[in-house]
Amino acid sequence: MPSLRQTVRRKQFFTYLAQLFFQGVIVLAPIGITVWVIVSLFNWVDNFLPNILNSMFPIRFASVNGQIPKVTGLGFVVVISLVLMVGWLSSLYFLEKLVSVFDKALEKTPGIKIIYSSVKEFLEAFAGSNKKFDKPVLVAIDAEDVFRIGFITQENCEHLGLKDHVTVYVPHSYAISGISFIVPLSKIRKLPKHISAAEAMKYAISGGVTSVEEENDA
Predict the structure, then answer these.
(1) Average pLDDT score over residue span 135-164
(2) Do 195 and 136 form a contact (C-beta atoms < 8 A)?
(3) Secondary structure of the chain in HEC code, one letter for each residue
(4) Which of 26, 38, 89, 147 is the residue whose CA sits 20 to 30 A from 108?
(5) pTM of the predicted model over 0.70
């Protein structure tokens, strides 16, 4: 029969191993997930070129096994270069007007306009000249003294028949989703000026784990 001291030491040993294991998970998990996302995105983009060539010119460019030979990194470079070139061309006056006409045509096409407008406005909310998530605030929704971090996306809701109201998008923690609330201005409290929109978003998505003060000091 093992003595009481041996039992206690055994429990302490396994507790120590469990602490080491979870500490290793905390270190490796963010690195592993980040590497996995980057590699998966790279491979997904890198397969664009051979897949397109294989569908357009299956005989001319096909190798012995009937597939386009893949050059690692070439598809990624081509896609990035194409996006940069389109961005540069769209900034030219003539092509900017042409893109504007094409844009209006898609926005008026039944069925297509729902998808096109939603994707366009969602991307413009994060980048471009029409950023929406750049006004972080504290918003009281569930109770008077209980606040959530949100972002004002509409400063005027009179078109909805609500005067002195704003639209606030509140992101979910550990998710890419969120909820839009229409609340009176009295429910809104501004964040300190040193807290940027990026820091506020990170704080909200991380469930409050990220410390804004520590990041600001760093």
Answers:
(1) 88
(2) yes
(3) CCCHHHHHHHHHHHHHHHHHHHHHHHHHHHHHHHHHHHHHHHHHHHCHHHHHHHHHCCCCCCCCCCCCCCCCCHHHHHHHHHHHHHHHHHCCHHHHHHHHHHHHHHHHCCCHHHHHHHHHHHHHHHCCCCCCCCCEEEEEEEECCEEEEEEEEECCCHHHCCCCEEEEEEECCCCCCEEEEEEEHHHEEECCCCCCHHHHHHHHHCCCCCCHHHHHHC
(4) 89
(5) no
pLDDT digit string (tens) for 10-60? 778 888 888 888 777 777 776 777 778 777 777 777 776 666 666 665 555
Domain ranges of the chain: 92-126, 136-217
Q: In this structure, how many other beta carbons lie within 10 angstroms of the beta carbon of residue 213?
A: 11
> In this predicted structure, what is the pLDDT of residue 58?
58
Q: How many residues does the chain have?
A: 218
The β-bridge partners of 51 are none
Q: Cα 91 to chain center, whole Å? A: 25
206 Cβ partners below 8 Å, 6+ apart?
173, 174
